[in-house]
Amino acid sequence: MGYKEIKMARLLRYSRSSNHSLDKNAEHLFSARHALNVYDENAVYSFIPKNGCSSMRVSLAIANGCIKDASEHDWIHKNNDTFSCGLRDLVTAKYTFVILRCPFSRLASAYLDKMIGETYASKRYIELHRRGKAWKQLNGLDNVTFDYFVRSLSEPDILKGNIHWRPQSDFLVYDEYDDYFCLEDFQVAVETLKNKINLSIIDARPLTRHGVSNQYHTEGSGFSVLAPDKLHEMKLQGTLPAYRDFYTEELVEIVRSVYKQDLDLYKDIFGDTALMFQ
């Protein structure tokens, strides 16, 4: 009598990081909360903030029958966990995918989107300092230049303190995914997801006004130490610097150290040609 072939379940990335009950494993719970169901196709998408996630969440909300079209995009902001996977969803998924991004671009994008002007993220950033756990004491955003911001990420409480700049590897619920896409070549994701799971991707950037892709890029130098209020004025005028121009050689090295795991993962999958700094 022959043996029936046993199909191995998908291996969860953080389930073995602790021998405690899985429902008390903080690393697993965080990544599982950001793993979203695409119900009709029994698929799982790990969403990572600043990696095209607004477009993806609007697209999932339409696919999952919760909104009619992109005009109802505001729904996603109060429903971050609505499609989050349970353990059965994670283990039995037929298709899994994630979208990664160049860590240098993602960090500059997060700074311009979340730290310029008063936002929940910027208030949270100040609060982390005031608790006395962080890199330096801080009274407000006036001195939080990009240079200051990047250097402060050496403090774990700040690095992990907001999902928009938290390392991408923290969001990965699986050891391996069926497909990895990169934001730098997003059209590949659009075409592949339509072909494999009939998921139509809606570009929500003009609706949510996240990101600065529609900005005119001002040329120059010294932007790493430019005051946030000056950057805010430039943002309102639609004349922000290019992401690359925020970096000095020293800041590049800091990011390489702080986000080493993210950079290694990106290079392993996509090579380094799409990285801002190779």
UniProtKB/TrEMBL annotation:
UniProt topology in membrane: Single-pass type II membrane protein
Entry's Gene Ontology molecular function annotations: sulfotransferase activity
GO cellular component assignments: membrane
Alphabetic keyword roster: Glycoprotein, Golgi apparatus, Membrane, Transferase, Transmembrane, Transmembrane helix
Domain of life, per lineage: Bacteria
Major localization listed first in the record, in broad terms: Golgi
One example of a Gene Ontology biological process annotation: carbohydrate biosynthetic process
Localisation per UniProt entry: Golgi apparatus membrane
Pfam families hit by this protein: Sulfotransfer_2 (PF03567)
Keyword Nucleotide-binding attributed: no
Full protein name: Sulfotransferase family protein
The species this protein was found in: Solemya velum gill symbiont
